[in-house]
Design goal:
This protein is α+β, with helices and mostly antiparallel strands and about 290 residues long. It has two domains: about 150 residues, N-terminal domain of MutM-like DNA repair proteins (Alpha-Beta Barrel); about 120 residues, Helicase, Ruva Protein, domain 3. It is about 25% helix and about 25% strand. The protein has six helices and twelve strands. It has a five-stranded antiparallel β-sheet, with helices on one face. A hairpin with a 3-residue loop joins strand 8 and strand 9. It starts with a helix and ends in a 10-residue tail after the last strand. The structure holds zinc ion.
């Protein structure tokens, strides 16, 4: 699933090219045998299933509107339109948002195409279709799910805020970092990378962190996410940037998906356990457990 650095990379890429553009028309695709048929969306009868929110407003609010801005909150993308509506885009497992020439081949699993006033297109592609594009009035957008439940932005969180969250919850550190209502945007990859750089066991209990450990964690959350954004995120499977390119940060991963490989700090073996309901990779030598 794209996490904060991947979504931030997409938003930064799109901000340069789609803001100020008018949405001329909408299209979707249908499969006829092996052929991909491109269809105009003129009524709600062929709105793709990935569209949600106030669906009956979708066509009238989107077509003819101008894109006023694009931002990120947690792993969600917010596209503000003229006319008072905004779109929340969540890529979930395999969603992609790609800005491309209208002459480029439309691939399978392209659910929605925005035709833009510069003659190019913004395409939403999603193989597994867990992602969505929802429309809501802009004035209450932060009251809509999932924006309403999101915690601090991890790149901006202050050490006092982190300390408070840690001491108010008695949960394993892997689960702590994955909890979107504490901090939003960190998923499985970056949780493991942050814990390794913090020399912290994934099963350590949040309320047991010392002041020194909290300071280290605070620093590493920002360091890992900033480096990942600089490298345009991590491409493990489906993630691509808004121009369809892979990210680079997977080359810098120290533990994620590296079971049995040597730790680059101590040469010990990286192991895999289950924590927070997810596969969790860590180095037992660099990340010892001192509480249970
Ligand atoms: Zn190690």
């Amino acid at each position: 699933m794209p996490e904060l650095p991947e979504v931030e990379t997409i938003v930064r890429g799109l901000a340069k090219v789609i803001v100020g553009q008018k949405i001329i028309s909408l299209k979707t695709t249908a499969l006829k045998g092996d052929k991909i048929i491109i269809e105009d969306i003129k009524t709600s009868s062929n709105l793709p299933s990935i569209v949600g929110g106030v669906k009956k407003k979708f066509i009238s609010a989107v077509i003819g509107s101008t894109i006023k801005g694009i931002n990120r909150r947690g792993k969600s993308i917010i596209i503000e339109l003229s006319g008072g509506h905004s779109l929340i885009v969540h890529l979930k497992m395999t969603g992609q948002l790609i800005y491309t020439d209208s002459s480029d081949k439309v691939i399978k699993h392209t659910h929605l195409i925005f035709n833009l006033s510069d003659g190019k297109e913004l395409r939403y592609v999603d193989v597994r279709r867990f992602g969505y594009i929802k429309i809501f009035p802009s004035e209450n957008i932060f009251l809509e799910h999932p924006l309403d439940t999101l915690g601090h932005e991890p790149i901006e969180i202050k050490i006092g805020e982190l300390r408070e969250l840690l001491s108010n919850h008695k949960i394993r550190m892997k689960s702590f970092l994955l909890n979107q209502s504490f901090m939003s945007g960190i998923g499985n990859i970056y949780a493991d990378e942050i814990l390794h750089r913090s020399h912290m066991h994934p099963l350590k209990i949040s309320s047991n962190l010392s002041g020194k450990e909290t300071a280290k964690l605070h620093k590493m959350i920002k360091e890992v996410l900033r480096e990942a954004i600089e490298h345009r995120g991590s491409t493990i499977r489906d993630y691509v940037t808004s121009t369809g390119e892979a990210g680079d940060f997977q080359k810098m991963h120290r533990v994620y998906n590296k079971e049995g490989k040597p730790c680059r700090c101590c040469q010990g073996k990286i192991i895999k356990i289950r924590a927070g309901g997810r596969s969790t990779f860590f180095c037992p030598a660099c990340q010892p457990i001192d509480d249970k």
